[in-house]
Amino acid sequence: MRKQIAAANWKMNLTIHQAKELAENIINAPIDLKPDQLVVLGVPFPYLAPIQKVVGDKAGFYVAAQNLSNKKNGAFTGEVSAEMLQSLGIQYVIIGHSERREYYNETNGVLAEKLNIALEYGLTPIFCCGEPLYIREEERQNAFVAEQLKESLYHLSAEDVSKIVIAYEPIWAIGTGKTASSEQAQEIQAFIRSELTTKYGAEVSESIPVLYGGSVKANNAVELFGQKDVDGGLVGGASLIATEFIAIINSLKA
User: Fold this and answer.
1) Are 68 and 97 in contact, with CB atoms under 8 Å apart?
2) Cα–Cα 20 to 30 A to 30, which of 5, 110, 200, 227?
3) Distances in Å between the alpha carbon of 105 and those of 71, 96, 109, 126, 214?
4) Which family does it belong to (predicted)?
5) Residue 254 maps to a domain
6) Does any domain span residue 215?
7) How far apart are CA 3 and CA 191, in angstroms?
8) What is the rounded CA–CA span in Å between residue 100 and residue 222?
């Protein structure tokens, strides 16, 4: 059975005190994770080690970086390498979030390089894809997402691509309060899986978790996660509120 994942993306928010308090509230909450369920906290770079310490060896809980460099090392001031993350014991990294694409001009080619280096250092990428509003309005979302997959993923072997988590995020639903309907989420996530099946075969595609990311909240998580091809969520704003995120975790498919 595919992993069911509740992944938090705290983005550029919280002080270290607030971050520790939030993590502690989540870690200490009455959450009964099944063997195929896990929680990933995507925290700002300065908080990786402190939050890793809070999480400790709590079963099913992990810390993720929100980004990494496409370079191994060198004179790249302000960048963070895969090796640095590995040395901290970090196991997950978010790659290709729409904000990185939009604000920092990260192309599909650059993201392919980031995937390569993450996998080389044993990190599990949470690879984000998804369309902006004008693409959705023109009903070209399938072709748009297919191109993202092709240019960033399809150079990978079946073995390597099976190590990746995919997060579909309709950009028009991030931070806007708009949410794709459960039917819309299922439709495009089934399409993503069908594209992976065409490229890598059913066995590989059926093993890859595909998350939904776009205004996931406690009051819509059960319906979204109940869809056949929705394997959890990449959660932004709601992950900053302990009670909300705990309810989202508890909404994962049993």
Assistant:
1) no
2) 227
3) 16, 10, 11, 18, 20
4) Belongs to the triosephosphate isomerase family.
5) no
6) yes
7) 19
8) 28
What CATH number is associated with residue 95?
3.20.20.70
Other Cβ atoms within 10 Å of 53 Cβ, number: 11
- Mean per-residue pLDDT pooled into runs of 10, the chain (254 residues): 95 98 97 96 98 96 98 98 98 97 96 98 98 90 97 98 96 74 92 98 97 92 96 97 98 91
Binding site for substrate: residue ranges? 9-11, 175, 215, 236-237
For the record, the structure tokens of 186 come out as 């299922």
Instruction: With respect to residue 146, please indicate whether it lies within any of the assigned structural domains.
Output: yes
Of 129, 48, 156, 46, nearest to 92 by C-alpha is 48
Q: Which position has the token pair 């904000």?
A: 99
Number of domains in the chain: 1
Q: Which of 146, 143, 127 is nearest to 135 (CA)?
A: 143
Strand partners, 42: 9, 64
What does R_g of the chain's alpha carbons equal in angstroms?
Answer: 17
Q: Between helices 16-27 and 48-55, what is the axis angle to 10°?
A: 20
Cα angle 79-80-86, degrees, rounded to a multiple of 5: 170
